[in-house]
Design brief:
- The protein has about 375 residues and is an alpha/beta fold.
- It has a domain of about 140 residues: 3-Layer(aba) Sandwich (Aspartate Aminotransferase, domain 2).
- It is about 35% helix and about 15% strand.
- It contains 11 helices and 13 strands.
- The strands form 4 sheets. A 7-stranded mixed sheet has the order 2-10-9-6-5-3-4, sandwiched between helices. Strands 1-12 form a two-stranded parallel sheet. Strands 7-8 form a two-stranded antiparallel sheet.
- Helix 1 packs parallel to helix 2, helix 5 crosses helix 6 and helix 8 runs parallel beside helix 11.
- This is dTDP-4-amino-4,6-dideoxygalactose transaminase.
- GO terms for molecular function: pyridoxal phosphate binding; transaminase activity.
- Keywords: Pyridoxal phosphate.
- InterPro entries: DegT/StrS_aminotransferase (IPR000653), PyrdxlP-dep_Trfase (IPR015424), PyrdxlP-dep_Trfase_major (IPR015421), PyrdxlP-dep_Trfase_small (IPR015422).
Length: about 375
């Protein structure tokens, strides 16, 4: 039994879990931005919302959008499928667009600037809205990781001509991507899927944070799933958009009102600050200070061998994430060294609102155990 004792531990993942007790709760009367906007539309996934909003804004063939080289890829695929041409720009040392870099990219075909609020940290939406207005451009705010984030008491996304949010990255619902736009798209028309199985998985993830046996079972199943994905060899399958007319699942629509809580951002901030207090020496400097109003999606660490570090964390029950490791295939990776550095060196740890202080201590302990045997790098991003 001793051989397996190290893996029979609770499991903590990036994605928010779903407590079974949520079914007994009443729906919240609180509606945060953008859910409180008449122009808000909710699709199954944010990429479908992007495609639909681009069509409503009459963006398409012959139009160009400026997109950061540091991106997920699914948003780029949605833009391309909507008919747009993508020009990439490098973010600066503060992970913001650089006006000096953007200006040479402007020509008569450029119609929009795509702005990403990384890890729930707010960009200066007011500044970039004015910058776009001065050049007759549309501002598209990607707040997929920044639902509930504010800047100067203004919700992230409020300055954009269009803004998109991933609701399931903040709450443990099966799916849900919201968009708000000056010209809102039509609501999705397909019949909603049940979302029941994805709901059950979120319940199991919640149990796994409390019962090591469930976490142990997950550690057995996960390698099989990874093997299957490698066998099918579809590195860009995560960019698939599906039918853009797909609404959120029945379970997402039913559970979201029960989950909405004005305390969510505070809890996520609390967990982020706890990790920052204990792991500040491993945090990229861009995320070493939690700005007022941020609702963090995850906690970043900068390490030399992120893949190996994640593997060791996994054996200790911490399911971190090397997010955005595969950019959109249209990106010339070598032309954007800062974005490449971030993809290869920065991984994410969970900070979601269902985690307790005891859980956070487990995460800190696991990171320290791993960092004691692996080299880390805290140099400036190139």
């Amino acid at each position: 039994m001793k051989k397996f004792s190290s893996v029979i531990v609770p499991r903590f993942a990036i994605w928010p879990t779903l407590p079974p007790s949520i079914h007994l709760k009443e729906g919240s009367a609180w509606l945060p931005f953008p859910l409180n906007q008449e122009s808000c539309r909710i699709f199954s996934r944010a990429r479908q919302a992007i495609w639909s909003a681009c069509k409503a804004l009459e963006l398409g063939s012959g139009d160009t959008v400026l997109v950061p080289a540091y991106h997920h890829g699914s948003e780029v695929e949605a833009l391309v499928l909507a008919g747009l041409t993508v020009k990439y720009y490098e973010i600066n040392d503060a992970l913001e667009p650089d006006e000096v870099t953007l200006l040479p990219l402007l020509d008569e075909t450029v119609k929009a600037l795509y702005l990403i609020h990384y890890l729930g940290f707010p960009q200066d939406g007011a500044f970039w809205r004015k910058w776009c207005d001065d050049r007759n451009l549309l501002l598209i705010e990607d707040a997929a990781q920044a639902f509930l984030t504010t800047k100067d008491d203004t919700p992230v996304g409020a300055f954009g001509h269009m803004a998109v949010f991933c609701l399931y990255k903040t709450y443990g619902i099966p799916d849900g991507g919201a968009v708000v736009s000056i010209k809102p798209p039509q609501p999705p028309q397909l019949r909603a899927e049940s979302g029941y199985w994805r709901m059950v998985k979120r319940h199991l993830n919640w149990i796994a944070t409390r019962r090591g046996e469930v976490g142990f079972f997950h550690s057995l199943v996960k390698p099989a799933i990874s093997w299957w994905k490698r066998t099918n060899d579809r590195p860009h399958a995560e960019f698939d958009m599906g039918n853009p007319d797909t609404p959120p699942s029945v379970m997402s629509s039913k559970l979201l009102p029960k989950l909405l809580c004005q305390d969510t951002a505070r809890k996520r901030r609390r967990n982020y600050e706890f990790l920052l207090e204990h792991l500040s020496d491993m945090v990229p400097r861009q995320f070493a200070y939690l700005p007022e109003g941020a609702c963090p999606f995850a906690f970043p660490l900068e390490v030399q061998d992120a893949q190996q570090f994640l593997s060791r964390l996994r054996r200790r029950g911490i399911l971190g994430l090397l997010f955005w490791i595969n950019p959109h295939p249209s990106l010339p990776v070598e032309d954007f060294p800062r974005s490449r550095f971030l993809r290869e060196r920065v991984l994410a740890l969970p900070v979601h609102q269902e985690l307790t202080e005891r859980d956070m201590l487990r995460i800190v302990r696991a990171v320290r155990e791993c960092s004691a045997s692996l080299p880390t790098q805290f140099a400036a991003v190139v």
